[in-house]
Design brief:
The complex is a heterodimer. Chain A is of the alpha+beta class. Chain A has four helices and five strands. In chain B, 37% of the residues are buried. The chains are: A alpha+beta, B alpha/beta. Chains A and B meet through α1, α2 and α4 of A and α2 and α3 of B.
Chain lengths: 166, 114
């Protein structure tokens, strides 16, 4: 696997983020990067190193799984789609912030990809095991592992906030 | 994707020698499994004891392997670590895989139940 090129700072991701649930809590991690599976591994590795000494190992592992599912979804489905246009070749830009409310992680993810379908957030259906589905598990896993999950579309970006129960 | 394979009285044992089974290696894992399985026979016991993290892409790759098993070869999983168990439990895919617990796996390895 070849290393991904460095991230250019995306102008659309600068400035205050409305509804950022991490605001006012102890910051642990903040990065801006483009979505791809190899970089996702590196980001998750950094998050684990930051959270590991601060919180329970099981909560850190649940945080890692939720972030992996969201970042994989953005890399797979999240290429920016301008109104009436075709998906852009370049992957979405992700802004990730993590803070701690005591020992409970709070995460804020914004990305410049396409809107997240409402049913993913509100009513994710896990596929039936007997059908041997090879995908479609992501959002039901995310819902099962997160506390307060909040989604909003802000202009051309998604904003997703959630907590991981301690 | 690093796998190690050996043949024993209970069939072929394949060990995943990686800490992560995730979206970055899902395709490589399926390819490596196909290659490893072509060199053995009988039931396949897949040892996941070194896998400390698995996401739904890794699970999907395991399901793809299960679906392509020849009718005369069973697939069994062993050595599931807590984070891997969690993904199986939450997706209920532990209902379609044969998962050996630690004791059953040790018995099988000694060939007491061929």
């Amino acid at each position: 696997m070849t290393p991904a090129p460095p991230d250019p700072p995306p102008p659309e991701d600068r400035g205050p983020l409305p509804g950022d649930c991490t605001a006012g809590f102890a910051p642990v991690y903040a990065r801006i990067f483009r979505a791809d599976p190899v970089r996702t591994r590196r980001i998750l590795d950094e998050v684990r190193q930051r959270l590991g000494p601060r919180i329970d190992g099981d909560a850190a592992a649940r945080t890692e799984l939720v972030l992996a599912e969201i970042l994989n979804n953005i890399a797979l489905h999240g290429r920016p789609l301008p109104p009436g246009g075709y998906p852009q070749a370049q992957a979405a830009v992700i802004h990730l912030r993590i803070a701690l409310d005591g020992v409970a992680p709070l995460c804020m993810l914004s990305d410049t990809g396409r809107p997240i379908p409402a049913h993913c957030i509100h009513d994710p259906q896990a596929p039936a095991p007997a059908l041997l589905p090879e995908n479609g598990f992501g959002w039901s896993l995310i819902r099962a592992l997160t506390g307060r999950l909040h989604y909003m579309r802000d202009g051309q970006r998604n904003l997703l906030c959630f907590s991981i129960p301690a | 994707m690093q796998l190690s394979a050996s043949d024993g009285p209970a069939g072929q044992r394949i060990t995943i020698c990686e800490a992560r089974l995730d979206a970055a290696v899902a395709t490589a894992f399926k390819d490596s499994m196909r290659t490893a399985m072509a060199q053995g026979s009988g039931a396949v016991t897949l040892d996941l004891s070194q896998v400390l993290f698995m996401d739904s892409s890794g699970l999907g790759a395991l399901i793809a392997v299960l679906k392509t098993m020849p009718p005369d070869r069973a697939l069994r999983l062993c050595g599931l670590t807590p984070n891997v168990q969690r993904v199986f439990r939450l997706t209920r895919m532990d209902s379609v895989f044969t998962i050996l617990d630690a004791g059953a796996d040790a018995t099988e390895s000694r060939g007491l139940h061929p």
